[in-house]
Every structure is written in structure tokens, then in C-alpha cells.
Amino acid sequence: MLRSHYKYANEAGTDEAGRGCLAGPVTAGAIILPEGFQNIVLNDSKQLTESKRDALRPLLEEEAVSFAVCHVFETEIDSINILNASILAMHRALDNLKEVPSYILVDGNRFKPYPSIEHQCVIKGDGKYMSIAAASVLAKTYRDEFMAKIHDEFPMYNWKKNKGYPTKEHREAIKKYGLTKYHRKSFRQLPEQFTLDI
């Protein structure tokens, strides 16, 4: 059972999606849920079906005290690395909240202090706290929506299905067609036995 709060009202949960992808942005969600918020379906977004995530998103947006989502794109990922880009996406999502949170719960074990607000990193936090789980659902659904949109530009990579993750099919398409403007050039796009001219 997910806990509604760590120790404060007006806590923000934050999480990211797309960190391990070869293409597309890393996307973060931040959300402040009202005190006493409960939802029996809500869980870590990876544990939910796509249809459950899609059904939860409007409900979370409607119920939230405040929420925000931010994409950090490939060129920025390549210039500052994926860990820094993930943290930057979370900071930017927090920047865009309409309410200032009293405390920040962060999924994972790495974060840079956010100006003047205390935070706590929680490993597997999206399976422990409602606010982090809700942030994970927002990050995942907004990112999936973006990947479905750019799929139409480059259908041969099948981003609608693989969302930019390093599936066999995605790697085969890279081998055949090369890289697009949406690929992260700093990532090892193909296993060592393949070479790619970029």
C-alpha cells in the first residue's frame, strides 16, 4: 500500500521517465497531491498497464494541488549527460509548480539540492509514496505521447511501440537507417560489434 505522505502536507513528489532510452527526451513529472489523497489503482508506472496509466493521468491532474511536466531533449542530454539531464528535468518540473512545496520526495538515490526546499531521495520511491507514483505516471504518459508523435516522422524505428528504448528492433533500425535528430549521440547506440558513422 502506498503511503500518502512522508511527514508534511504540501509535499511534492518527482520522478523521471526515459533515462535508459536511445532516442527522445528524458521527461520528469512533479506533483503535489491534496492531503488525504487515496487511489487504489495508483502505483509505480512500470507496474501499471498503459490503459491504467492513461486513465489515471486526467484524474491526477484534476485532483492535484499543482503538477508540472518537463522534457529535456537530446542535445542537452548529450552536453550534460543523462544523470544531470534527469535531475535538471525534475528541477524544471518543480520550477513550474504553481504552489511552492513544503518538501520534495525524489525517486531514486541521486538528486541535487533544490533551492531552499528540503528533499529526500527514496529508492524505489514510486512503489512507496503516492506523490512519487503520481509523478512517475505523469512523466511516463507525457513522454509516451511525445514518442508516439515523433513516431510519425520516423516510423521505421517504431517508437510508438518501443518508446525509444534499446529493443532489438530499434537497434536493427539504427543499423539500417542510421541516427535521427532525436537520437542521443552520447549513448552507445549499438553493441560493440557494429560501427556507425555519425
UniProtKB/TrEMBL annotation:
GO MF annotation, one: manganese ion binding
List keywords of the entry alphabetically: Cytoplasm, Endonuclease, Hydrolase, Manganese, Metal-binding, Nuclease
Q: What is the lineage of its organism?
A: Bacteria, Pseudomonadati, Bacteroidota, Flavobacteriia, Flavobacteriales
Entry's EC annotation:
3.1.26.4
Q: List, alphabetically, the Pfam families matched.
A: RNase_HII
Keyword Methyltransferase assigned to the entry: answer is no
Species of the source = Flagellimonas flava
Which biological process annotations from GO are given for this protein? Answer: DNA replication, removal of RNA primer; mismatch repair
- The RNase H type-2 domain sits at 9-198
Look up the domain of life of the source: Bacteria
Q: What does the function comment of this entry state? A: Endonuclease that specifically degrades the RNA of RNA-DNA hybrids.
| Database matches in SUPFAM superfamilies | Ribonuclease H-like
Cellular component, GO annotation: cytoplasm; ribonuclease H2 complex
List residues binding a divalent metal cation.
D15, E16, D107
Required co-factor?
A: Mn(2+); Mg(2+)
Per the record, the similarity remark reads: Belongs to the RNase HII family.
Reaction catalysis annotation = Endonucleolytic cleavage to 5'-phosphomonoester
- What is the protein name for this chain? Ribonuclease HII
